[in-house]
Amino acid sequence: MLTFYSRILVAYDGSDLSKKALDMAMALAKQDERIELTVVAVSNPPTATSMGSYGIYNQELINEIRENAEKILSEVKEKIAELPNKTAAVVLEGNPGRLIVDHANQTSCDLIVMGSRGLSGIKEMFLGSTSHFVVQKANCPVFIVK
Questions:
Q1: What is the tally of structural domains in the chain?
Q2: What is the C-alpha to C-alpha distance for residues 128 and 136, in angstroms, rounded to an integer?
Q3: 99, part of any domain
């Protein structure tokens, strides 16, 4: 199979759909050892502004959320180490959609692979808010796995 992608970014949050997205991206990367694979997990801790004007800033909660993202990626690092390709796993902090798009732009990714939101009923027609944002704002193709 011929591929035109040399740098693939996978958005990963540990969900079943993100695991499927990682598997799909790894299958694409296996086509050619020159394909680079980057897995991004985004830590999105609540801020005082997102919690309202009387929100409580809790550094322990922020640290816990960041550590959870790093733990999720430590498992991914073991999995992608099996590839002969150049790989990376990165934790970013902030708005997931914006950071995925920005990181893809900064690293000249030419494909983003991510999971959709698995909902039932009429909601199946709609993507999750992060997936939707990335599809709308990315400068490269976005492969949505469901």
A1: 1
A2: 12
A3: yes
pLDDT for position 118? 36
Residue 1 lies in a domain: no
For 119, phi then psi, to 5°, come to -115, 165
- What strands lie across the sheet with 7-11, from one edge to the other? 87-93, 36-43, 7-11, 111-115, 142-145
CATH of the domain at 35: 3.40.50.620
Q: How does pLDDT run across 94-122, given as a tens digit for each residue? A: 999 999 999 999 999 999 999 986 333 34
Say if CB 26 and CB 8 are below 8 A apart: no
Q: pLDDT per residue over 32-73, tens digit each?
A: 999 999 999 998 877 655 555 455 567 888 888 888 889 889
**What is the distance between the alpha carbons of residues 17 and 24, in angstroms, rounded to a whole number?**
10
- Separation of alpha carbons 130 and 70, rounded Å: 20
The residue among 109 and 124 whose pLDDT is bigger is 109
Cβ neighbourhood burial of 4 (10 Å; 0-12, 13-18, 19+): exposed
Structural tokens at position 139: 């400068």
Strand 36-43 relative to strand 87-93, pairing:
parallel
